[in-house]
Design goal:
The protein has 71 residues and is mainly α. The chain has 3 helices and no strands. It has one domain.
Length: 71
């Protein structure tokens, strides 16, 4: 699956445009989600939603800059 390849690229950042990998993963997962919705595949929709959340969380955890909290 193309989304899984892009997800692997997020974890293995050597020589990879990580932002592009995230966008590839999200694009492919979003397309799969569209197809699952059209076909009424509730279980697949739920699985894909979790996968999208994992992809975004992996990216955020490794590459999003932490904002200082106001105290």
């Amino acid at each position: 699956m193309l989304a899984e390849e892009a997800m692997s690229a997020i974890y293995d950042v050597r020589g990879t445009d990580v932002r592009a990998a995230l966008e590839d993963a999200r694009y492919n997962l979003d397309r799969a989600m569209d197809i699952a919705r059209m076909r009424g595949m509730a279980g697949e929709i739920e699985r894909l939603a979790k996968q999208i959340a994992r992809v975004q969380a992996a990216y955020d955890a490794r590459f999003r800059k932490k904002r200082p909290t106001d105290s």
